[in-house]
Amino acid sequence: MNIAICDDEQQDIDILYNYCKSCKLPYNISTFLSASDLLEAFKSQFYDLIFLDIEMDKPNGFEIGSILAGYSPRPVIVFTTNALQYAVRGYGIAFRFLCKPITITMFQSVVREALDEILPQKAAVTCGSTQKMISINDVIYFESLNRHIIFHFANTSTLEIKDSMENMISFFSYPSFVQIHRSYCINLNYVDSFTPLAVTMTDGCKIPLSRKKQTIFQERFNNLIRGTIK
């Protein structure tokens, strides 16, 4: 797995570099002191996981992160920052956020979650008489309609199976999935924006947010951007 660390402070790069080494996994680690250097290197080398400082000189982490997030396949981006309030602006680009000073415990937690994202998780769902394998990480959301479940995937495809929302909620008991309406369960990693009434996903779909589900959604969302989702 290829990892990139980008920060304009060498001391901060060294901390993350040493944390990576302490994990004792087969990582190839590259470091960059500017976001433009990272972008140039990315053109010829794909990085599965990128630790990207937000507060750098132009172009800053937000600007380069938004460009990298448009690539396919998309790298897993973890923003590092001195101020967590920047996290809301970067949500939708970053997979997680790490607020400096970054501890080894914080780092290891995010790396574990990143590995789950990078290494595809598969699930078998019953489609007629066939067991269909789907990639959990690629599910943007699923909805219940006329006693059927319709999955919506990141590649814009859909899959319809005969099952109940109750069964699917139990089946998809993963940290990033939350039911926000009696007919909808979403993957928080694909949230683009939200209001008290609806959540807009990265595919442009606007999903109603039930008043009864607002608290749990907001709590899970906050945990996600803080990197403490469980």
Automatic annotation (TrEMBL):
Residue ranges of domain Response regulatory in the record: 2-115
Entries under PROSITE patterns matching the protein: HTH_LYTTR, RESPONSE_REGULATORY
InterPro entries, A to Z: CheY-like_superfamily, LytR-like, LytTR_DNA-bd_dom, Sig_transdc_resp-reg_receiver
Keywords, in A-Z order: Phosphoprotein
Superkingdom of origin: Bacteria
Domain annotation HTH LytTR-type: ranges: 123-223
4-aspartylphosphate modification, residue list: 53
GO molecular function, one term: phosphorelay response regulator activity
Function: May play the central regulatory role in sporulation. It may be an element of the effector pathway responsible for the activation of sporulation genes in response to nutritional stress. Spo0A may act in concert with spo0H (a sigma factor) to control the expression of some genes that are critical to the sporulation process.
Protein's recorded name: Stage 0 sporulation protein A homolog
Organism, as annotated: Agathobacter rectalis (strain ATCC 33656 / DSM 3377 / JCM 17463 / KCTC 5835 / VPI 0990) (Eubacterium rectale)
